[in-house]
Design a protein that fits this description.
Elements lengths: L3 E4 L9 H16 L3 E4 L13 H12 L22 H14 L2 E4 L3 H13 L15 H9 L5 E4 L6 E6 L3 E6 L7 E3 L7 H11 L4 E5 L6 H11 L5 E5 L19 H7 L3 H9 L14 H7 L14 H14 L2 H8 L8 H11 L8 H10 L16 H18 L4 H15 L3 H13 L7 H8 L1 H15 L1
Parallel strand pairs: 1-2, 8-9
Antiparallel strand pairs: 3-4, 4-7, 5-6
Length: 475
């Protein structure tokens, strides 16, 4: 059997990081078994479509390196891969279900359906269709359709049946058919609902393993029935756990950062994000924390994923991203930093990259560390008085430092540092206090890259100008 998995997002906005999690598992499992990873665009909910969202899906997958073997963009033997281009296919199979007696036309108006729902709610009943149109014969339904009446097609749910959903992670899950609604399969506008489209597409595209979030479990018995009604073999179902916030609530836009775009904008590396996601609900057999995606593909198996919702710990992701940043060569890091430091010249970025490599966890943090390079610093004079240093001491420290820099310059860091250390020893100043005063005078903040090595980023004259400004503040 050729393993075929699919990622089937809806272009209704940003890519949710939970969807990325499922796509990563789909891709890894397919590649482990030399199979195919398919991207299908599920755009049948026309009211919710967002312009440009489909292109963002392609961009996100390309950034992560999860390149589909088949998609609307890449083509393939089982297209079209955009559901809005497959309407005739769904309508054909829906009519087949009607003819077999597994579905029926429903002519109920939205007003009647809403009235039923409200009445059921008042009685504390689960809102479900009352099957009014299920009694209409096919011949009568066809006459009404011929007269121009609008209708949907609903599937027939059997009475009093235990429907078994086999799940690779959870075993067999039993549903009572009395709690399942007669699901709409084709809407009155001719577009399918998710339930019909996903079953038809997965069958026709020869999908062998369906990986989706556990929120789709309540829909699974409907899909089991549809496979039975069509007489098709059902793919292996894997309902992955819902990602959780640290407080165990569902990872949501209100409490967490759910958009893949946000992770790109913050300067997370795709390999770090994939490494982090791989460890959600799964453990490396050697208990490694850091490993490549290629290694993950080799040792991963879907059956080893835990069904218990894992915690999405952003702090751990930031730590992991820092590890990946430090593994980059200076030249690689320079290339990664350029989009985050548009105010700096290529030469300045080349000088700065090795200075900040050990200090950042996300690429966006580089701008905060290096802001002093392009922005004149401003601060309260009292801020210069660190660790018990008096105004007179601070002034003397900076005056002597300026004299040394005027003589030595800023390009020879080793010589400059040696001269400053000799000054500190001669004056018996506290080394930490001296360098903190110096750092604030130059950068305006306490946390910066190594201060001596940072001076060439500013140049000789700018360093002297900033020391003069600090001395004015202390006058």
């Amino acid at each position: 059997m050729v393993v075929r998995t699919r990622f089937a997002p809806s272009p209704t906005g940003f890519i949710h990081v939970g969807s990325v999690y499922a796509a990563m598992l789909d891709y890894a499992f397919a590649k482990k078994h030399q199979g195919q990873f398919v991207l299908r665009i599920e755009d049948t909910d026309q009211k919710r479509l967002v312009k440009g969202a489909e292109e963002r899906i392609y961009q996100g997958l390309e950034w992560l390196g999860l390149i589909p073997d088949e998609s609307p963009k890449h083509g393939g033997p089982y297209g079209p891969y955009r559901q809005s281009e497959r309407l005739e296919i769904y309508q054909k199979y829906a009519r087949e279900l009607v003819e077999k007696g597994h579905a029926y036309y429903c002519f109920c108006s939205p007003e009647r359906l809403e009235k039923i729902r409200q009445e059921q709610k008042k009685k504390n009943q689960v809102p479900m269709y009352d099957r009014c149109c299920r009694r209409i014969s096919l011949a009568e339904a066809q006459k009404r359709l011929a007269r121009g009446e609008r209708a949907v097609i609903r599937m027939k749910i059997p009475d009093n049946e235990k429907i078994v959903v086999p799940d690779l992670l959870r075993g067999e899950i039993v549903f009572d058919s009395r709690m399942i609604d007669d699901q709409v399969l084709i809407k009155s506008d001719g577009f399918p609902t998710y339930h019909l489209a996903v079953v038809v597409d997965d069958h026709l595209m020869k999908i062998t393993h369906v990986v989706r979030g556990e929120e789709w479990l309540p829909s699974a018995p409907k899909h089991v029935l549809l496979y039975r009604y069509f007489g098709w073999k059902m793919p292996v179902l894997i309902h992955t756990p819902t990602l959780r916030n640290p407080d165990k609530s569902k990872l949501s836009k209100r409490q967490g950062h759910t958009s893949l775009d946000w992770y790109r904008e913050q300067g997370f590396l795709p390999e770090a994000l994939l490494n982090f996601l791989a460890l959600l609900g799964w453990s490396h057999p050697e208990e490694k924390e850091i490993f490549s995606f290629d290694e993950f593909i080799k040792v991963f198996d879907l059956k080893d994923v835990s069904p218990i919702g894992p915690v999405f710990d952003l702090k751990k992701l930031e730590w992991m991203n820092g590890v990946y940043i430090r593994q980059k060569s200076d030249q690689e890091l320079i290339g990664l930093l350029k989009p985050f430091l548009p105010q700096m010249t290529p030469e300045q970025i080349s000088q700065a990259a090795p200075l900040i490599k050990e200090r950042i966890r996300k690429l966006i943090e580089a701008a905060d560390l290096l802001e002093f390079v392009w922005r004149r610093v401003d601060y309260d004079p009292e801020f210069l008085l660190q660790r018990g240093v008096t105004r007179e001491q601070a002034r003397e420290m900076l005056l002597k430092t300026k004299e040394i820099i005027e003589a030595v310059g800023v390009d020879n860091s080793e010589e400059l540092q040696q001269k400053l250390l000799e000054l500190i020893a001669r004056k018996q100043w506290n080394t930490g206090a001296f360098f903190m005063v110096f750092r604030i005078a130059i950068c305006g903040k306490k946390i910066t890259p190594p201060i001596i090595e940072s001076l060439p980023l500013l140049g000789h004259q700018e360093v002297l100008a900033r020391l003069s400004l600090a001395l004015e503040k202390l006058a």
